[in-house]
Amino acid sequence: MTTTAERLRCDAARNRERVLAAALELYREHGPAFTVEEVATRAGVGIGTIYRRFPTKSALLDELARPYFERLLTTARAAQAHPAPAERLETFIRAMAEQHAVDGIRSGRLWDTTVARPLRDEYIRAVEGILADARAGGRVRADVNPHDVGVIIWTVSALIDATDRAVAEIWRRYLDLVLDGLRPGGDQPLTTRPITSADWESLVASGPVLRLGT
Amino acid sequence: MTTTAERLRCDAARNRERVLAAALELYREHGPAFTVEEVATRAGVGIGTIYRRFPTKSALLDELARPYFERLLTTARAAQAHPAPAERLETFIRAMAEQHAVDGIRSGRLWDTTVARPLRDEYIRAVEGILADARAGGRVRADVNPHDVGVIIWTVSALIDATDRAVAEIWRRYLDLVLDGLRPGGDQPLTTRPITSADWESLVASGPVLRLGT
Amino acid sequence: MTTTAERLRCDAARNRERVLAAALELYREHGPAFTVEEVATRAGVGIGTIYRRFPTKSALLDELARPYFERLLTTARAAQAHPAPAERLETFIRAMAEQHAVDGIRSGRLWDTTVARPLRDEYIRAVEGILADARAGGRVRADVNPHDVGVIIWTVSALIDATDRAVAEIWRRYLDLVLDGLRPGGDQPLTTRPITSADWESLVASGPVLRLGT
Amino acid sequence: MTTTAERLRCDAARNRERVLAAALELYREHGPAFTVEEVATRAGVGIGTIYRRFPTKSALLDELARPYFERLLTTARAAQAHPAPAERLETFIRAMAEQHAVDGIRSGRLWDTTVARPLRDEYIRAVEGILADARAGGRVRADVNPHDVGVIIWTVSALIDATDRAVAEIWRRYLDLVLDGLRPGGDQPLTTRPITSADWESLVASGPVLRLGT
DNA sequence: CATGAATGAGTCTTCATTCAT
DNA sequence: CATGAATGAAGACTCATTCAT
What we know:
The structure is a homotetramer.
Chain A: H1 2-30, H2 36-43, H3 47-53, H4 57-80, H5 88-103, H6 116-136, H7 146-163, H8 170-182, H9 197-205, H10 207-210
Helix pairs in contact in A: 1-2, 4-5, 4-6, 5-7, 6-7, 7-8
The structure holds a DNA duplex (21 and 21 nucleotides).
GO molecular function (chains A, B, C, D): DNA-binding transcription factor activity; transcription cis-regulatory region binding
Pfam families (chains A, B, C, D): TetR_C_43, TetR_N
InterPro entries (chains A, B, C, D): DNA-bd_HTH_TetR-type_CS (IPR023772), Homeodomain-like_sf (IPR009057), HTH-type_TetR-like_transc_reg (IPR050109), HTH_TetR (IPR001647), Tet_transcr_reg_TetR-rel_C_sf (IPR036271), TetR_SbtR-like_C (IPR049445)
């Protein structure tokens, strides 16, 4: 009995993984422009099986986003652990971009996914700490705040999405420029009011950028 | 006679404009995810009328892109005419972003549209001149080339698309940082090889980013 | 006044001819699978002009059939005038096939067209005379009647339609065989009852074969 | 298990048959001028069900053609097995016509359908054997070849299509004449060069005659 | 009268989702 | 539980015909 039940659970879990793996593959290849039936075929399961696990195609895509964000979070934690606090900010931003590039999820600006919500808080807190370290070390201009960092990472991610497949690595030049701009150096002040938490929430909640599928 | 002929063309032209206006509205609201029938309804014409002027939904979207690029080109020419050559580069980049923000075409990275093709050449040439001016005036670091400028503008446009509706003006902070990075100042060298013309062509030709419709 | 009126009538007549010529061309090229708009373009007139002359696309096609039948009738009359009465039947059948082949109206089994109706009577009468001549000369088996001749011509026409474009002239072998079968020679009797006038009417009126367009 | 699996397949198969039956009915009634939706309605299924089995309306029509050709082939094989070799040719031609008449597929000159392709070879080979038998028995004139037989059957089929619904059996008179012409008897030689294999291919491949749908 | 712009019903096809087996 | 068959609401596009200019 137990065995049977476990077997079932086991099979179910494996199926779930297969479906997610197939969906991820397809997402990497085509963005959200793939069919649920294609996922089923590639996963080697029936279409009904997918709908048993995921109520909706959109829910399936959400589930794709979760590990992506977990990997990002791991990256963020690693940067926090960097021995030289002053280096943490650049290390962090570069590592995030690198991770995004490696991850292969293109057109994957998935931050407003339901699953991303809980992760975002930890993420923001991490950024706050890292930025404070950089500031203490005099490695960042005074007028940027954690949300600026979020926007930078977001933008570079979009650039990676847009270009990495066509011309790999190009985004690095761009990232270099931005990091250069981040460093202190008697530069002209930023021309717009600081980004607030509320702004950030609005951004993340705003439909168009983040819409999945269709 | 002339009057009659023109009247006809007049009405037809007005309908054409109505269709384009409706399509633009819908594009601003939903990106390319709108129905030809919606366009017809909003324009107050039959569906056949749309297909009389535009052989395809995709052609209609192309036509949407055309004035957008023409406005960008006008902006570029204006920047070239700026009295102080050294100022031209920053003026140019800011003006392009501004124009894009004002234009309201969101998710509108339309550079690979058929209609954009002929405009691109003039655009690139303008950038070359402007960059040379800035370099002569010592206002830009030595290791950036015209294609870097193209990528910058492209990226900022994407950022505007993504954020301007949710939190207006935020993109300006980002742009400030990048412009700061563009200025000379003994900064760290760029970590990746320069972008070539061929890279640029690949970028622009790469389907996924720029594909309209579907 | 008169001049103007005549000019008008003249222009109108010429337009009518142009439309018919364009339609015929298109019919030869594509069968009935062409657009009214294509006719207008090729004729160099507006679409409204066509609808002024011909109430319907189908009526236009009918009008195409008229000269075709008139040519056939001329052919029939010529055969009647052949000096050797006994030769008239084969001459007639061959000439009809030839005329059909030359005419170039493919998939043009137009016998049930409204315009063909009045011509059919004269046609049948001609066949009757010709057949009587052949019979008097002992050049045709006794058990065929005028309607058999009609069916033969009809069938060969269909064969021409089907094959002449792909492999010209092949239909002649076939026609030879049939003519051979028509000649007297102690052959096996025909296995089916003679075709009556009523049969002929049914045939000609039967939809599927003759349907134009769509 | 097996039962379940087969049940599924069973129902699906039944639906498939229903769809084919409905399509055949409609084809008999209207030729290819019917709607996929009509098929669905008449078959009592959703439109999607049709598209699950047949990727295209054209593929559905192909599938209609398949059994038709298989029946023809069976007929051909039966004629080859006729005890008296000399009789085989006429038996064959008559049987083919008969089968076509009974089959009820009107306007069904479907020989260039994809599904017909593989059957054609066997068909031609059968005709060759049968013709040789007839020639050995002195029952056919010397100057006809297998392709002539093909053209004869094709033409008679067209005649059946055109007339059988309006006046049943009339085609038999015609067929009698042609068979008469096929027999030897010191008749006039055929006036055109023999039909070659290449001719036959051209014929079959020539679009206009055989094109299904639209 | 001529023109060609406008119309919109009708066609094929796709795909997320439900449901019988 | 798994399967994959069934569903049907859209969506893009065509074309005969009408009608304003």
